[in-house]
Amino acid sequence: AMIPLRDEKGILRLSLKRSDILYLQGTDNYVTVWYLSKERLSKFLLRNTLKKMEDGLQNESIFRCHRSYLVNMEKIKLIRREKEGLMLELDTPVTVLIPVSRTYMNQVLLAFGQGE
What we know:
This protein is mainly beta. The chain contains two helices and ten strands, in the order E-E-E-E-E-H-E-E-E-E-E-H. Strands 5-4-3-7-6 form a five-stranded antiparallel β-sheet. A three-stranded antiparallel β-sheet has the order 8-9-10. The radius of gyration is 14 Å and the shape is globular.
């Protein structure tokens, strides 16, 4: 199934297969969608907030792990404990590391059956 990605006005800007979506990175009123296209990392900029995107993607196994990041759970290869905290390593042709902030640490671990 394709996941529609819309801007703040609800206009469809991009449709991607869930398996191609890696993560979404938010800055103010923009969200960068990182995805795989022919085995290469690609990105698409949407005018929207991460919060709105998060609400729309709740049933798609794409969840918040940091105030600036949503990550596709299916794409996480491993969870690394670094001194700064948890990092999620994604299953991608080039190494991609996504930070997990303390706020979201437990729900990330719970999602992987490792929470308290």
